[in-house]
Amino acid sequence: MIFTGPRPPVDIPETSVTSFVLGRAERYGDRPAIVDVTGGNGYTFAELASAVRRAAAGLRARGFGRGDVLAVLAPNVPEYPIAFHAAALAGGTVVVLNPLDTADDLATHLDEAGARLLVTVPSEVAKATALTGRTKVEEIVVFGEADGATPFSALLVDDEVPDPSVDPARDVVALLHSSGSTGHPKGVMLTHRNLVAKALLTSLVAPTGEDEKVLAMPPFHHAFGLTMMMNASLLQGTTLVTMQRFEPEAFLAAIQEHRITRLYIVPTIAVLLAKSPLVDRYDLSSLRSIVSGGAMLDPEIARLVRRRLGCHISQGYGLTEAMVSFMQSAEPEAPASVGRNSPNVECKIVDVTTGEELGRNQRGEILIRGPHVMKGYLNAEEATRKVLEPDGFLHTGDLGYVDDDGELFIVDRIKELIKYKGQQVSPVELEAVLMTHPKVADAAVIGVPDEEASEVPKGFVVAREPATPEELMAFVAERVAPYKKIRRIEFIDQIPRTPVGKIERRTLKEREHAIG
To answer: Any idea where the AMP-binding enzyme C-terminal domain is (predicted)?
Structure first.
């Protein structure tokens, strides 16, 4: 059974992502497109579009075009979309990199992508330069100035940019990396059509107005920040206020000072907004809406945020491979769901063992099909075949079901289910129970080897105040079936998470293996 959403399909323009996203820039004119949170620099829509064209011309003058790859290693700064869209307009591909990655990981990503140019910020130039000897990178370009690097301003020339004649459905314009929380990160190939669809669908299911301001804090190197936030905001004439890193008080101060109307956040920040006493020190009355992504949002936390801030908060569901597949309404009818299908997005639920298609209210693996689904994994044909069916459906690896109203509910990651004496135990369910204990600030659960049971659930807890393993295990045991009980608890200082808030269970399992 194939599930579709309540909205009618829309036409996906057959054009390049830059032509689509910046197509209205001249009309928006002198309205601010992107500014730094400090107020240090920024661009109007007209200036942004002009800089993209001039930088694209500069890249073409360097021989950069179709088939070439430019890498961006930078936090969120106003120049980021200029570099991205200049390379796209020149006909090339952009690999976006996480500045927090190790030098080995960065070298691997650059080498796999075959990047010739690396654009970065002054603070990362030394790291970038060290990578040139290990990769195909020929030139370091820096936003601003730094010794040993070409200033980004040197790329800006006034020549006309020839039409790169891209094939929107086939040409890869962006390479992002899956989080790697359950295995080695893979390069996700996204075409122009993929990114056009992502920006368009976001504008339909989570629209912003031309008078709005978005705090651009989720990293642009992640699909959530690049596609849902950066491109969709520029498409709609919404101002982006860039923030390089998250710090609670600076985050709250930015909302107050810039009169931010829309936030894109991860669930850990929703907890801050719901419970932290810091929130009461700032005027957040400008907020109209919040979109949570990256991991599941606790319905109770969402309710607390709505009540405290008086604004809408909703969550969506997607992957780097298929961002913005589902989205809740502003006032979700089923708070625990991730909403209904976005336009043009199809979904089916299949039996994990047999692959048989299931009906409503039956749990199985979630498969997604639509114009936003990736082309495949870079240099990984076998991995691509495992997740992409010949008919275009993508295996998400997530376990869930669709209810009678068409709402999708995520149960867990299939690979992360704990096998206790033949029973499947969801770590997400146990984490949700732990988080309701007043002494628990954060929690994660993994399966650890056990001779008798195969695996047993172990909880890692960041305590809000002193607690004992026994009282927390007893608390959980009172609220779950006997086979789901947590059998071990370890207190730690911080739960390892990805930049978008997903628990890095692999890190916890490696920690457990090292100790055990």
So the answer is: 429-502
Alpha-helix runs per DSSP H in 45-186: 45-61, 80-89, 103-113, 125-132
Cα–Cα distance between 508 and 12 in angstroms, integer?
42
The CATH fold of domain 417-515: GMP Synthetase; Chain A, domain 3 (3.30.300)
Q: How do beta strands 322-327 and 340-341 pair?
A: antiparallel
Which pTM was predicted?
0.86
What's the CA gap between 247 and 278, in Å, rounded? Answer: 12
Residue type present at position 5: G
Tell me the average pLDDT across 204-225.
95
CA distances from residue 253 to 258, 301, 309 in whole angstroms, order as listed: 8, 22, 15
Which helix (H) or strand (E) is 481 found in, with range?
none
Separation in Å, CA 225 to CA 97, 104, 155, 467, 509: 13, 24, 25, 37, 28
Question: Residue ranges per domain, the chain?
Answer: 17-34+42-165, 417-515
H or E element that contains 450: strand 440-450
Phi and psi at residue 46, to the nearest 5°: -65, -45
pLDDT given for residue 333 in this prediction:
77
Provide the residue count of the chain: 516
**CATH 3.40.50.980 is held by the domain 17-34+42-165:** yes
Alpha-carbon torsion angle 274, 275, 277, 281, nearest 10: 0
pLDDT digits (tens, 9 = 90+) for 24-66: 999 999 999 999 999 889 999 999 999 999 999 999 999 999 9
Beta bridge partners of 3: 347
263 and 293 Cβ atoms separated by less than 8 Å: no
Judge contact between 338 and 326, C-beta under 8 A. yes
Domains 17-34+42-165 and 417-515 share a fold: no
DSSP conformation class of 123: G
356-384 per-position pLDDT tens digit: 999 999 999 999 999 999 999 999 999 99
Q: Report the amino acid identity of residue 385.
A: R
Burial class for 249, CB neighbours closer than 10 Å (0-12, 13-18, 19+): exposed
What is the C-alpha separation between 384 and 389, in angstroms, rounded?
Answer: 9
In one letter, which amino acid is 456? V
